[in-house]
Amino acid sequence: MSKISFTPIQDAYIAEWFPDVNFGAVPFLYISQYKQVGDIYRSLIQFNLCSLGCNFIPPNSCITEAKLLLPVYRNEITGYIDVNVYRVLQYWSEDLVTWNTQPLASNYPDGSESVPGGFFGTVEICITDLVRGWYNGSIVNNGLLLTGNEAANDLLGFYSKEYPDTSLWPKLEVCYFEHCCGCRDYPDED
Fold first, then answer.
1. I want to staple 155 with a disulfide (CB 3.0 to 4.6 A). Which of 76, 87, 105, 115 is the partner?
2. CA 190, CA 177: separation in Å to the nearest integer?
3. What span, in angstroms and rounded, lies between the C-alpha atoms of 31 and 11?
């Protein structure tokens, strides 16, 4: 089995309190409500599975696992929250997206992970089925929308691709077997 990691081609957060402001050049991403009603944060991330150069999954491979990795920068969670990942259904631009222009996203999360207050590691969210769809072309890759607790003050922050230390950027980690036949039956991971 092989493993490959991708970094974002674009990312940005959007803020309800600043509905017409673009935050695409900021070194952080935020989710959840902050301090008061009307102050919700969401983040958008997009990865390209067909990067130029050597960083790509070979044709006819079978993806066995795909995880979104989000190193935590700021944690103001009071108990636990779920970090939810939704597929984005429309094109968006890191340099233009705002709360008022945010793209439509799926109604159901493609992945979710519970995060406690005080946690400062890396949040890992399984999105294998979504990434398989991107890879085989059955799902259009418009990226991901991240949400948290939008009903209480539980702000959670991650590093974005604008952060100077590239080791802390969001990553999409994909495990796969090369040259599988049909990719209907996924090999055991043993």
1. 76
2. 12
3. 13
